[in-house]
Write a structure and sequence with these properties.
Pantoate--beta-alanine Ligase, Chain: A,domain 2, 19% strand, three-stranded antiparallel sheet, alpha/beta, single chain, Rossmann fold, 2 domains
Length: 281
């Protein structure tokens, strides 16, 4: 597996394969890899001739009070995992390579970024949209693979790539879960054993929403109230940012469950903020 350290090296690597007619899959990550990330690599391996991963903890998507400094960094372990999966190359840029001194250009994210995470984490999606566009320019792949666990992020990236006519296909990949239902996340490492148990309330609340939808319940208020109740049950989560049901494409609020919809949750267990989602219609 090649380690690409500069944008020039990364662009040259991808273009050399593109010029030979090969499809190239891009798997952007911030490292601290788990089975969810590796499932993206496997999906890319199945669909594309060549797979390139990136590891870059992007500072512009963290707010001033968020966990940038303590975000887990396990570079050598991550590279071992990627090589074991047959990844052709990994791009490992420095902060300076991505944001040179005097950098001042950012991407204004699309409308789908405005609510939910956009309200809870101001500026977050500006950083996400900017870094994904930069990676798409540096590594002009044919496909890029993103997990559905970060559902709103997926919709933001899809809209940004479409609106700015970026010639790369964003491929959504299913959320990978632990056996007990907890969505895999690099931030799960922060959880104590007790908090790990508390965190299961997210997947249980989503299952409750799906159960109600499957039973024919159409009232959004009823479903959201049931989700909130489930999140707080049995020494549940410590704080809820949102537990809501929205249009599956626009993420606009719904008053009635009569169109494709997704249930979305963001909640704190201790100081760790977790997100999860489930399509319910």
């Amino acid at each position: 597996m090649q380690r690409l350290l500069t944008p020039e090296q990364a662009r040259s690597f991808v273009l050399s394969h593109r010029f030979e007619g090969r499809t190239v899959g891009l798997v952007p990550t911030m490292g601290a890899l788990h089975k969810g990330h590796l499932s993206l690599v496997r999906q890319s391996q199945q669909q594309c001739d060549v797979t390139v991963a990136t590891i870059f903890v992007n500072p512009t998507q963290f707010g001033p009070s968020e966990d940038l400094d303590k975000y887990p960094r396990l570079l050598e372990h991550d590279c071992e995992l990627l090589e074991r999966e047959g990844t052709a190359a990994v791009f490992l840029p420095s902060n300076e390579a991505m944001y040179a001194n005097g950098y001042s250009t950012f991407v204004d994210p699309p409308k789908v970024a405005q609510r939910l995470e956009g309200e809870c984490r101001p500026g977050h999606f500006r950083g996400v949209a900017t870094v994904v566009l930069k990676l798409s320019q540096i590594l002009p792949a044919t496909h890029a693979f993103f997990g559905r666990k970060d559902y709103q992020q997926l919709k933001v990236i899809q809209a940004m790539l479409r609106d700015l006519s970026v010639g790369i296909i964003a491929v959504p990949c299913e959320t990978v879960r632990e056996q007990d239902g907890l969505a895999m996340s690099s931030r799960n490492r922060y959880l104590s054993d007790e908090q790990r148990s508390q965190s299961l309330r997210l997947s249980k609340a989503l299952s409750k929403a799906k159960q109600l939808a499957d039973s024919g319940e159409q009232s959004i208020d009823v479903i959201e109230e049931a989700m909130q109740e489930e999140l707080r049950r049995d020494g549940g989560v410590d704080r809820i940012d949102y537990a809501t049901v929205v249009n599956a494409e626009t993420l606009d609020p719904l008053s009635k469950l009569d169109q494709p919809a997704v249930a979305l949750i963001a909640a704190f267990v201790g100081k760790t903020r977790l997100i999860d989602n489930q399509t319910i219609l």
